[in-house]
């Protein structure tokens, strides 16, 4: 998706929200984005090689009805098989989270997806809907999530993931001025929510971003461990630590950059 197309979509989203009035905002988002996509095109390998824009269709979007706790949205892109990682990320972050979920569907050769593709889309939509419903009653993030799919004609295209396009869709869906793009397999430090609840900190970030400055959040990981449960516990300990506690974990080589 090109920058001018993204700007155009932002404008269209605003117009759609006004026109639809009482209709849920997610419906405006769906109709607006799908209006920009051809419904009878399938991606072929030559499209990828020649650098043509990815053709994604928005199946459905689910937006949180919980009020945003802080004015910063974490954005992420993922495949439909990684909802478990999204659950952990949502639990670690108590602010808004915008996620774009990707599903690739083999076309039927006639511009459609066929019975198998429709079943895959329906199953994915059910899984995301159930996931979102659980997030709405959990003490975690305020989740906005969209399910996007790509219809492909070539088998090789089922192996490729347009991750940057997914990140762009997640950014487009964010409803706050401040955003932080974070991969879905990363957890968010618990101190970030607390820090963002201080007005002076928010004002500082907004001033710096208005001056076209960006902030890079440091990322840490646990050493390889065949005991996945132990690795997860260490990651959760690191997430719950303050800066001094994290420094101690690094010095003990329990986590590293």
From TrEMBL:
Cellular component, GO annotation: membrane
Biological-process GO terms, alphabetical: protein O-linked glycosylation via mannose
Signal peptide limits: 1-21
Entry keywords, A to Z: Glycoprotein, Membrane, Signal, Signal-anchor, Transmembrane, Transmembrane helix
Molecular function terms from GO: glucuronosyltransferase activity; xylosyltransferase activity
Compartment(s): Membrane
InterPro entries named in the record: Xyl/GlcA_transferase
Entry-linked Pfam families: Glyco_transf_49 (PF13896)
Membrane topology: Single-pass type II membrane protein
Record-given protein name: Hexosyltransferase
Organism: Monoraphidium neglectum
């Amino acid at each position: 998706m090109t920058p001018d197309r993204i700007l155009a979509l932002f404008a269209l989203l605003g117009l759609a929200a006004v026109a639809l009035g009482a209709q849920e905002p997610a419906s405006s988002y769906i109709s607006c984005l799908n209006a920009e996509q051809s419904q009878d095109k399938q991606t072929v390998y030559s499209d990828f090689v020649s650098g043509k824009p990815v053709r994604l269709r928005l199946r459905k979007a689910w937006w949180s009805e919980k009020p945003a706790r802080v004015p910063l949205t974490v954005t992420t892109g993922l495949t439909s098989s990684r909802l478990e990682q999204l659950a952990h990320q949502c639990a670690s972050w108590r602010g808004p989270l915008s996620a774009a979920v990707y599903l690739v569907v083999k076309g039927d050769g006639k511009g459609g997806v066929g019975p198998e593709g429709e079943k895959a889309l329906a199953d994915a939509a059910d899984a995301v809907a159930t996931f979102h419903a659980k997030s709405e009653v959990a003490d975690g993030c305020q989740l906005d999530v969209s399910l996007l799919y790509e219809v492909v004609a070539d088998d090789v295209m089922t192996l490729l993931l347009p991750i940057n396009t997914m990140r762009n869709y997640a950014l487009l869906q964010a409803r706050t001025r401040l955003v932080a793009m974070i991969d879905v397999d990363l957890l968010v430090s618990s101190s970030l929510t607390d820090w963002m609840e201080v007005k002076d900190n928010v004002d500082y970030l907004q001033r710096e971003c208005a001056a076209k400055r960006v902030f890079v959040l440091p990322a840490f990981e646990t050493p390889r461990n065949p005991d996945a449960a132990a690795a997860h516990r260490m990651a959760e300990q690191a997430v719950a630590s303050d800066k001094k506690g994290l420094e101690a974990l690094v010095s003990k080589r329990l986590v590293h950059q």
